[in-house]
């Protein structure tokens, strides 16, 4: 942890925003402009990337420098200290999408459509640039004050060649596609799209379609993921059939049958938002 008041280059730490096994994120103030920023600190003592490859920091920095999209968090600066690689990012004050889903307040389907549409647009932009995120989950989607989304945490993101499948098993298991769970070579675009389906299900129901229940072994969840065996909860009886259909065409166990970004964008449920 880093104490408030600590200076990192031109920045003064205000408080910790979050921490994980490989990185720490702090809220800081740029002493030159008084702007609040988020700084992701990656320990130099852990030179191995999150998926076991060297150079995780360099790849994340390279990807962040190459993207510019209203629904992707912006890189503002980067520098090193003796202990850390530091990525200075725009501060997004509205918290994580996870917090919104976890709140007792119901999320209207129109609001879910708007959030999901922005996320699809951001992921489609990445795929056009031959970048797959590989860690799409509600904790990596931030909300602005107006509830627009900002996709963040590119620590597992990779540039891809469409002709060469990826092999590293990474990301959160509840969001992992069947081919990843089964340790098969995979197309990073297809696994990102599977994760989009998981997030859409959560937006509509406030539940994940796959999770480890108390007393249950992880293997049980993995078997369900491999078969795309999910059910809408009874509490989701008000969810429209169009929305359920979009989940269905995304959460296909066979990646060849899984909806593409183009098919998702053209789906009647998402198109309805464009018409409003």
Automatic annotation (TrEMBL):
A Gene Ontology MF term for this entry?
ATP binding
| Gene3D superfamilies membership | Transferase(Phosphotransferase) domain 1
Q: Where is the Protein kinase domain?
A: 11-270
InterPro entries xrefs: Kinase-like_dom_sf (IPR011009), Prot_kinase_dom (IPR000719), Protein_kinase_ATP_BS (IPR017441), Ser/Thr_kinase_AS (IPR008271)
Q: Which UniProt keywords apply?
A: ATP-binding, Kinase, Nucleotide-binding, Serine/threonine-protein kinase, Transferase
List cellular component terms (GO). Answer: cytoplasm
Does the keyword Kinase belong to this entry? yes
Q: What are the BP-aspect GO terms?
A: intracellular signal transduction; microtubule cytoskeleton organization
Q: Which SMART domains match?
A: S_TKc
Q: Where does ATP bind?
A: 40
- Listed PANTHER family: KP78A-RELATED (PTHR24346:SF82), MAP/MICROTUBULE AFFINITY-REGULATING KINASE (PTHR24346)
Family label: Belongs to the protein kinase superfamily. CAMK Ser/Thr protein kinase family. NIM1 subfamily.
What this protein is called in its record is Kinase-like domain-containing protein
Taxonomic lineage from the root: Eukaryota, Fungi, Fungi incertae sedis, Chytridiomycota, Chytridiomycota incertae sedis
